[in-house]
Amino acid sequence: MKNPLLEKFDQPFGTIPFKDIRTEHFIPALDAAIDEAKQEIDAIASNQEAATFENTVLAQELAGKKLGRVASSYFHLFGSESDQEFQSLAGQISPKLAKFGNDINLNQELFTRVEHVYENEMNSLNEEDARLTEISYKGFVRNGAKLSDSDKDKIRSLDEEMSTLSPEFSNNGLNATNAYELWLDEGDLAGLPDMIKEGAKMAAKSKGKDDKWLFTLQFPSYFPFMKFSERRDLREELMRASVTKCNGGEFDNTELCKRIAKLKHERAMLLGYDNFADYILEKRMAENQENIFNLLDNLYDASFEPAKSEIEQIRSIAKEIDDIDELMPWDTVYYSEKLKQKLYDFNEDSLRPYFKSDSVVKGVFDIAHKMYGLNFTKQDNIQTWHEDVNVYEVTDEDGSHIGILYEDLFPRETKRSGAWMNELRSQGMQDGEVLRPHVTFNCNLTKPTDSTPSLLTFSEVTTIFHEFGHCLHGLLSNRTYTSVGGTSVFWDFVELPSQIMENWVGEKEALSMFAHHYETGEVIPDELLQKIKDSKNFMSATMCLRQLSLGYLDMAWFGKDNNVDNVEEFEWNAVKKTALMDKMEGASISCSLGHIFAGGYSAGYYSYKWAEVLEADAFEKFKEDGIFNRDTAQSFRDNILSQGNMKHPMELYKAFRGREPKVEALLKRDGLMEEHEA
Fold first, then answer.
1. Per the CATH hierarchy, to which homologous superfamily does domain 245-319+537-678 belong?
2. Which listed residue, 126, 391, 395, 496, has the most CB atoms within 10 A of its CB?
3. Is 467 among the catalytic positions?
């Protein structure tokens, strides 16, 4: 059987032939690619010549590229377009990859050669070759190369088990999301905007029930219902389904939470660390738990009392409007919207007509053109994994090829929730030449209906800008080696390029470029722009607390050894100081928090707030110079976006900003500090 994953990709720009790939191709392709990579690694390790940068470090960097191609194709589709048969492959693929990774990391002969280069050649290498050597050497050490043979065996065993648990956690989350359905009649729809009702009607029709309306736990369905539905009983039902998802039942993740945390701790202990967080933070800007808790606690001190005041305002309006004596968690989003309307005469849904998804995507492209000179040309001859996906060639101001960008905006049952960016092909040397990247941003935004195009909320627009910022980080990489380039930076630095892009959504000069009424073409009126500005810090303290609670929860799981009996109870003890309301029975964030149990954010969720400090401070530079100042944008491109992991992130940041970041910029922006306090 011809296997397209093993053939040279003959598609335009060397893109992945998604339409030619079948589920049954992956295991044979993976096995063949692993065999080929093993031969490449064995040849390096057994080389009788003295170890040099070229025959050892560089040779290792260039080995296994076909395997990387197969793996990246699989894991992209795992998140973006996978049925149960496809999901089940992860139980075979992840252990195979884990074993192969350890075969390299624990290869004594290979490590000895890399160590020789690191100890003897560093002073004679150019800057990037030296950086690659340093990354390679430290990678070996951090993965057990200096352990005894018995401890190496333990590492292998832990990694093999862990490789099966994370995909299982993800699958449970997706399947639990798809399993819940709230079927409603027309009389149950009070308060819901027409577009939301139409989307629910279409969802019901797709399931063969033309006389019903269907709501699900997918965010574009769930959140508007919680925000607008007048049916308090149904809001409660939907929220309980969401917060108890994977906490017990068919798709239970409670034992997986415990086991994943335990395995990560054991692995860190074997490597000489007190806990998993200490292991992780060795390669982070934060450096240690003390610095993380200093950040979290300082933000907590600044936000808790303002957040209590925000909740009291919501309690008051719930009493005023509907005589609610006891505010419940399923009330907060609904009555916060009522409060927002009262305070600012502003219904965020009134913005939707100005945010047609196609226009927003074009807008973020136009902004990138204005800042960096980039051009985006739609490609109709490149294969995609779903009909909703659009593809663009990205070129520089001089017409030179930058890379390929895929855009996948809408939810479906075969796609995990949330929003993320993938690198399908990272920038760097492959097959003897430095190749340009292929990146994708994936969202779950409001879908078009039979009568209206996809019209987005302000928050959804912000999501597009966020993920596009990650894409720019991948696209504008300008390094020789993949391991040094792109988004392969310290985890608490990787959110800077994404979060800084969100700032342009709130700027009139940027919004006027794309926020046009989808029917009339009218530019978003100044009145609405002013309401966006006036309300930008509405509930900001409460939202800050929410992020802090997840940061505290993450550190509770991974900052020390835990013998967790009851996940729900453990979680509440970790986050209760941030709670503004009583706990909901059965609620568990952990059980569906794929970021820390199935993603890369274990002992890293604080990164979002850490990066907010960086981006708020960095954006002040843009505000000072002009948000479209080309010199400032070029400096950000040269010092941040193009550099990858070439230097320590603080060096890169100071090269752009001229100094270290200050937390005051974030506090001022979010209304948690008066300007004169800074």
1. Neurolysin, domain 3 (1.10.1370.10)
2. 496
3. yes
